[in-house]
Amino acid sequence: MVTQDLKKFSSPVFPFTAIVGQEEMKLALQLNVIDPKIGGVMIMGDRGTGKSTTIRAIADLLPEIEVVKDDPFNSHKSDLDLMGNEVKIAIQNDETLETEFIKIPMIDLPLGATEDRVCGTIDIEKALTEGVKAFEPGLLAKANRGLLYVDEVNLLDDHLVDILLDSAASGWNTVEREGISIRHPARFVLVGSGNPEEGELRPQLLDRFGMHAEIRTVKDPILRVKVVEERTSFDQMPMVWIENYETQQQELRTRIIDAQTLLPSVQIDYDLRVKISEVCSRLDVDGLRGDIVTNRAAKAHAAYNGRDKVTIEDIEKIITLCLRHRLRKDPLESIDSGDKVSRIFKEIFEIDD
C-alpha cells in the first residue's frame, strides 16, 4: 500500500512527446525499446541538453508490465528467459502465481556504485550455516525488463562498465562468491550518457554500445526561447501539461507496442544486407557487431513505421547512429565520423545528395 501511495506522490515527468528537437537521441531510445537486442544507446553531448529529461520521459511513456508479485527480479509469469529461479520452480510445481502491473523500471546507477551494489551479494555465512543460497539482489536485478541509466558513463570504472555491457548483451547476471554461484535474468536497455569534454570511453567499450547519439546545444535563439518557456510552464503547471499531451503520449505508446508485435515478421532483403556489410567493410569497422546492429536497427525502424520490409530509407536513418562510434580515430582526419558514415553509405547505395 505504501508503494502505491508513493507512486501517487512521485514527481511529474516531462512528457516525451513535448521534448523539442534532439531527434537523433529520441529515435535511438525508441528503437532500443522496440528491440532491446540492439544493445543500448550511448548519448554524448553538452551539459544541459536534456539528456536525463529525455531518458526519464521515455521510461514514463512506456506501458506497464505484468510481473510476479513480490519478486525481486520483476519476473515474467511465462517467459523463462525473464524469470528468476524461484518462479521457475513454482511453475514446475504447478503453483499459482500472483501477478501485478508495475511501471517499467527505470534504474539510475550512481557514479560511486560498487560491484556488490550493481551485481548483488551472496550471504556466505548464511549459505554455510543454513545451507541456503541467500542472495541480496543488486541494481541489475531491479533493472530486469526495464531501463538502466548511467550518467557520466565515461567516468565509471572500466570493469563496472564491462559488467553492465555483459549483462545487457546476454540478458543474465552471474554472481560468484567462494564457490557459490547465482544467476538471474537482467534483460534491460542500457543507456549511458556523458560529456565528451570529461574524457572519452575506451574504444572497445564504446563499440559494445549498439547506438551512439550525439547531441548539440540548440543554436537557434527562437528555438531556445521556446524550450525555456515550455520548461518554465511545465514546472509551474505540470498536471495541465501532462493532460495536454496525454493523447500524443498514448498514440506513441500504441505505435511502440505495435512495432514490438510486428518486429519478428520484418524482413530485410539479401542485397540490402550485403550493402550494409559493404559499408562496414569500406569504413574499416572491426568485427561484425556493426553489421549485426545495423540490421537489427533497420528492422526496428521499419516496424516503428508499420512496415514488414526494410527499405533503403530505414537504413539511411539509422546507419550513422549504429556505426559512427566504431570507426578508428584518425587524428589527421578533418571529417566528422558521422559525416564519413553518411558519405560512404550514399556511395554504396548510389544515393545522390
Automatic annotation (TrEMBL):
Give the UniProt record's GO annotations in the biological process aspect.
chlorophyll biosynthetic process; photosynthesis
Principal EC category:
ligase
Q: Which reaction does it catalyse?
A: protoporphyrin IX + Mg(2+) + ATP + H2O = Mg-protoporphyrin IX + ADP + phosphate + 3 H(+)
Q: Which InterPro entries does the UniProt entry name for this protein?
A: AAA+_ATPase, CHLI-like, ChlI/MoxR_AAA_lid, Mg_chelatase_ATPase-isu, Mg_chelatse_chII-like_cat_dom, P-loop_NTPase
A cellular component term (GO) from this record? chloroplast
Q: Which pathway does this chain act in?
A: Porphyrin-containing compound metabolism; chlorophyll biosynthesis
Give the function comment from the record.
Answer: Involved in chlorophyll biosynthesis. Catalyzes the insertion of magnesium ion into protoporphyrin IX to yield Mg-protoporphyrin IX.
Cited PANTHER family: MAGNESIUM-CHELATASE SUBUNIT CHLI, MAGNESIUM-CHELATASE SUBUNIT CHLI-2, CHLOROPLASTIC
User: What name appears for this protein in its UniProt entry?
Assistant: Mg-protoporphyrin IX chelatase
**Protein encoded by which gene:** chlI
